[in-house]
Amino acid sequence: MTSVKEFRVESEPTTDALGVGAFSFTDDYSVFDWGKMPDEIPDKGASLCSMGAYNFERLEAEGVPTHYRGVVDPDSGEVVDFDAVDAPPTEMAIDLTQVPELPRDGRDYDYDAYFADAGDNYLVPLEVVFRNSVPPGSSLRARTDPADHGLDFPEWPEGVVQLEEPIVEFSTKYEESDRYLSRTTADRIAGKADVGELADLARAVNRVVTERGAEVGLTHEDGKIECLYVEGDLRVADVAGTFDESRFSYHGQQVSKEFLRQYHKATQPEWVEAVGDAKAEAKARHRADWTALCDAEPEPLAADVIAAARDLYAAGTNAYVGRDLFDAPDLDDAVAAVRDL
Fold this sequence. Notes:
By secondary structure, the chain is α+β, with helices and mostly antiparallel strands. The chain has nine helices and 15 strands. It has a single domain, classed as D-amino Acid Aminotransferase, Chain A, domain 1, CATH 3.30.470.20. The protein has helices at residues 44-61, 111-118, 139-143, 183-189, 195-215, 258-267, 269-284, 303-321, 331-339, and strands spanning 5-11, 19-25, 68-72, 79-80, 91-96, 104-105, 108-109, 121-123, 126-134, 161-172, 180-181, 219-230, 233-237, 246-250, 253-254. Strands 8, 9, 10, 11, 12, 13, 14 and 15 form an eight-stranded antiparallel β-sheet that branches. Strands 1-2-5-3-4 form a five-stranded antiparallel β-sheet, covered by helices on one side. Helix 6 (258-267) crosses helix 7 (269-284) and helix 8 (303-321) packs antiparallel against helix 9. The longest helix has 21 residues, at 195-215. It is globular, with a radius of gyration of 20 Å. The model has no long low-confidence stretch (mean pLDDT 95).
């Protein structure tokens, strides 16, 4: 399914009905769209599963529809509510939608063929991105002007711009190199799904996750959702508000996958540059498979970095869900360890 989740099917979806299955969260990680990196981060999968389940149950309580069915209890194997498990779960039961093949010719993707096979039940081939702040280096600064978002700046300020209302954008999901889309293009790629409703779901998820983060001292900076469409209705799919799907910070220190991105930029700049060069070359040559053009490979992480990353995921999850699921330091100590690397 992805580079960090595996997929189990119990009953197949059809063109007009959902199926049943489960996500199995691994300890793999990915940065810069590379796919599986050389290392695993212990307990990362259980951390993401726990945060995802916790958020889905909060969203359902707020009336936000999702594809969540429960978590698989590590002890009994039964599908239960998150609060019913004593050990961190690694499997999440979900409703399944169809994901048709998306044919392509170079970098041209045939969305008409995707929807011809989709019927009234499909995963919307978009990621809906929400931003609560615009930090230096954000791609938003290069692609847009402040006035495009109703902001009263002639140009982007040097520091972080905190937003009173989130900015919602759309990007592709299944293309080899994700690209941000105009509202008109996003509406076409959404098929029968309404982009206005997708944006409303993103704002609802953002509000729930932001409020919970604030309760435990985490600043929710940005994130994304994916959605399924079934017979006229939209539901939040995949997972939302985890340390991989969203960027959180704690007193200025990243507490999310962003830490791993920044660490690679600092310690493996040649590889990060090679990734950027390969993506640019693929675009210039109208190719989708940019990784084949990359002339460098990522190096494994040092043992102390893996340990610090594990503690950051585990401690952050403990704080966010309000339970000591993991044997981990408190969040202050986990953040201090990462800051000192």
